[in-house]
Amino acid sequence: MTSEQLPSGRIYVAGHRGMVGAAVVRHLQRLGIADHDLITRDRSELDLIRQSDVESFFEAERPDVVVFAAAKVGGIHANHTYPAEFIYDNLMMAANAIHAAYRFGTARFLFLGSTCIYPRMAPQPMPEDCLLTGPLESTNEAYALAKISGLKLCEHYRTQYGVKFHSAMPTNLYGPGDNYHPENSHVMPAMIRRFHEAVRDNRDEVVIWGTGTPRREFLHVDDLAQGLIHLVNLDQPPNLVNVGTGTDISIRELAELIAQITGFSGEITQDTSKPDGTPVKRTNIDLIKSTGWQPRIDLETGVGRTYDDFLRASQTGTLRAV
Ligand SMILES: NC(=O)c1ccc[n+]([C@@H]2O[C@H](COP(=O)([O-])OP(=O)(O)OC[C@H]3O[C@@H](n4cnc5c(N)ncnc54)[C@H](OP(=O)(O)O)[C@@H]3O)[C@@H](O)[C@H]2O)c1
After folding, report:
1. What sign does the CA torsion over 284, 288, 291, 294 have?
2. Whose CA is nearest to atom 38 of ligand 1?
3. Superfamily of domain 11-175+218-246+282-297
């Protein structure tokens, strides 16, 4: 089977209203999934923190496949301010869903984490086997520990019970459904918003934080969705696999690309009093490539599509900014 085929059986996409979950649902719909084979519940219908509700749901629905894109997610500020919620919510969601899936016969469970599970000083590009080889970045330790527990639950249930439970660690994502909050958003949506507003307000300067030299990796969320279905279709999926592009771009180059796409022709200056963060951060994608997957959407095309989506959402009042 390939990433262009529907996995067999009924599929539960957890977190379907989020950026990743929505992209997975779009991909499944593109592949022609029947309504009765797609299971979704928003948080008001099923709070994944509540164990007995999660068990009742799995007992009643008995999904064959789970793509687990539900999580409490946030930027540095939120992670730093609410570490108790980040560890508790994410641990409970993972433990409840993985155990209930095992109990009620789910054949495939794909758990999602992020590359913040790797040590702060991980080798670059980061390979999967650097997991647990050094201390974590302190700002998101709570989140990372919950995600490491989730992936280890999948690994140990697979070893002990023979179920195909496995995990994927996406790099930085961008695309439709991203969060454009002025302070809480990630670098890509924050820049799209700032350049767009500079054009709208006829400003001739946009200031970016730091020296502009740090290099980062960005994957379009539609590529991720396709990669996740590819993983779910593999007969022997890796326990843990990075999903990224394996390539990076400097923050300055990214700003120039976004300026070009948004039509900003003024000056891009750098506020070097602001911190840069790690000089380079990108994933090693040799493992997923060896299974026959690679990303398809180049950055220029992806950012162009994302800006179109930003404009559409701004016009319809549906832009996410939480
Ligand atoms: N975005 C990125 O750049 C990125 C990068 C790497 C990895 N990832 C990973 O991808 C996964 C999904 O991230 P995302 O960006 O799609 O996040 P998101 O847009 O914030 O979506 C998260 C989803 O989880 C749901 N959820 C949260 N708490 C819940 C609960 N207690 N019960 C039921 N549902 C709950 C949310 O529901 P509500 O809408 O009702 O709140 C939302 O639909 C996460 O594991 C994240 O680590 C994301």
Report:
1. negative
2. 43
3. NAD(P)-binding Rossmann-like Domain (3.40.50.720)
pLDDT in tens, 20-78: 999 999 999 999 999 999 999 999 999 999 999 999 999 999 999 999 999 999 877 78
CA of residue 267 relative to chain centroid, distance:
32
Q: HSE (CB half, 13 Å, CA atoms) of 16?
A: 18
Output the CA 72–ligand 1 centroid distance in Å. 6
Per-domain boundaries in the chain: 11-175+218-246+282-297
Token output for 71: 């999580």
**What gap in Å lies between CA 35 and CA 254, rounded to an integer?**
39
Task: For residue 201, give every residue at least 6 positions away whose Cβ sits within 8 Å of its Cβ, in sequence order, or none.
Answer: none
Q: Is the peptide bond before 135 cis (omega within 30 degrees of 0)?
A: no
Catalytic residue flag (residue 143)? yes
Residue 112 CA, ligand 1 centroid: distance in Å: 9
